[in-house]
Amino acid sequence: MIIKNKKLRAFTLVELMIVIVIISVLLMITFPNFKASQDRAKEATVKSNMYMFHQCAEMYSVDWGGIYALNSQMLKDEAMLNKYWKPFQNPFTSKVDIATTTFVSIAEGSGFIDPIDFPAGNVSYKNVQNVYGIYAAGKENGKAILDKGRIFHLTNQ
Asked: What residue ranges do the domains of the chain occupy?
């Protein structure tokens, strides 16, 4: 059976161009929102790492009768020995075991201050006279995570 005069319908170039423009506009609108939500999720992961580090510091204190570890390496060694160390993963670099003690010097009585030249996503633990502070850098190197305009940190004070 032969069908004659059957007209084929196809999209015109103008119709295809309009669809491409609409899709590109939608992508331009959604991409910045997607990137911002990714950054917020990564900073939330860093805050979670800080909390887990805080839990390790408190467990260390329980094991040692109220004395806190002098640095993150002492804390890690004790926690690994007692099987409560959790390997921390930096969400910005995907490196594991991000705890460090890199801080600028702390003046006597000034308390804890913002870390400088601190890699993004790293968590820092510093103990001064059995009062510790746990800080972390956000997505920008050297910039501590902020919460409501203030430096986000955990401490036993």
From this structure: 14-155
